[in-house]
Design brief:
Length: about 210
C-alpha cells in the first residue's frame, strides 16, 4: 500500500475544492448572462485563494470534514466545465458516463456497508489490481482523446490516473481517484434530468392526443 504525502494531500485539497466550487458557480450561473473566459479564470483564482485561508476560515476545511477529498475525476470534469463554460453542444457528463458512475457508486457503497462483502474498495489499495486498472484506464482515455471521442470525460480520466499513478492522490486508493459522493450525486442528478426531459414531452403528447 502506497499512501500519498500528507503535505501533497493538503495542497491537493485546497486546489481541488477551489476548482470544484468555481465549476459549481459557473454551472449555476444564468446562461443569459454569459461569463467571459477572463471572468471564469478570475473566479477560479479567487475560489482557490479562498481555500488557502488558514484553519476554519477556509471553505475547504468544512468541505473536508463532510466529504474529505474530491476525487481527481471530479476535479478533471470540473476543469472541463470551466473550460467549456456552457458552450452550446458541450456535455461534461454524458449519459453513459453518468450511468457508469451511478452503478459503480451503488456497488461500492453496498460493499462498504457490508451488504455485499466482496471487498471492492480494498482492492483499490492492491499492489497489482490498482496499477493494472489505472494503466488500462489511462491507455483507454489517451486513445479516446487521440480519436477525438468523449473529450471531457477522457481528459478527466487521464488526469485522474496520472495524479494517482505519480502522486497517489488523493488517498492512495484508486477508487477515491475515480469516484466520490459529490461525483456520484452529479451523475444521479444528470440521469434524473435527462429522464425528466424524455418523459415530459411524451406525457404532453399523450395529454394532447384524443382518447
Amino acid at each position: 500500500m502506497h499512501l500519498p504525502d500528507l503535505g501533497l494531500q493538503f495542497i491537493y485539497a485546497r486546489l481541488a475544492w477551489g476548482i470544484v466550487l468555481a465549476a459549481l458557480f459557473v454551472a449555476l450561473w444564468p446562461r443569459r448572462f454569459a461569463l467571459s473566459s477572463r471572468a471564469v479564470a478570475l473566479l477560479t483564482l479567487v475560489m482557490v485563494a479562498l481555500q488557502a485561508m488558514p484553519g476554519a476560515a477556509s471553505p475547504a476545511y468544512w468541505l473536508g470534514l463532510a466529504f474529505q477529498w474530491p476525487s481527481a475525476m471530479l476535479v478533471g470534469l470540473c476543469v472541463a466545465t470551466l473550460y467549456l463554460n456552457g458552450k452550446p453542444g458541450s456535455r461534461v457528463m454524458p449519459d453513459k458516463l453518468a450511468m457508469l458512475i451511478a452503478a459503480s457508486g451503488i456497488v461500492l457503497y453496498l460493499d462498504a456497508f457490508g451488504l455485499i462483502s466482496i471487498g471492492f474498495f480494498y482492492w483499490g489499495f492492491g499492489p497489482n489490481t490498482a496499477p493494472m486498472l489505472g494503466l488500462l484506464l489511462a491507455v483507454g482515455s489517451a486513445v479516446a482523446l487521440a480519436r477525438g471521442k468523449l473529450m471531457p470525460p477522457a481528459f478527466a480520466l487521464l488526469v485522474a490516473m496520472m495524479g494517482f499513478s505519480i502522486l497517489r492522490l488523493p488517498t492512495g486508493n484508486i477508487w477515491d481517484a475515480l469516484i466520490d459522493p459529490l461525483l456520484w450525486g452529479w451523475a444521479l442528478v444528470s440521469l434524473a434530468r435527462q429522464g425528466t426531459r424524455r418523459v415530459f414531452p411524451v406525457a404532453a403528447a399523450a395529454r394532447s392526443t384524443p382518447l
